[in-house]
Design brief:
By secondary structure, the chain is mainly alpha-helical. It has three helices and no strands. The chain has one domain. 63% of the residues lie in helices and 0% in strands. Helix 1 runs antiparallel to helix 2.
Length: 90
């Protein structure tokens, strides 16, 4: 089996995977770099906690959006149920 068999034959899939790797790496670097940036500008350790908490708010909000979508959300579907929008296994 060669390296470019299956999904890796598609250039669009390879570009999507490369974008995902770059995005995850950037997120991981930011998690480490932001506290050092706060400390470098002279902020106390309590400011690091405030900045980390502020960074957590959008992530928690997006998790809540997926878990409990608002009624009539077009991403989930007009019925409001995710399982109704997913293809059924045959």
């Amino acid at each position: 089996m060669g390296l470019l068999d299956g999904s890796l034959q598609s250039q669009n899939f390879r570009l999507l995977q490369a974008r995902n790797v770059i995005s995850v790496a950037g997120t991981a670097v930011a998690i480490v770099a932001i506290p050092f940036a706060v400390l470098a500008i002279g902020g106390p350790a309590s400011d690091v906690g405030v900045v980390q908490a502020a960074d957590l708010v959008p992530m928690a909000g997006s998790c809540c959006w997926v878990a409990w979508p608002p009624a009539g959300c077009p991403v989930i579907g007009s019925c409001g149920r995710l399982d109704m929008c997913l293809p059924r296994a045959r």
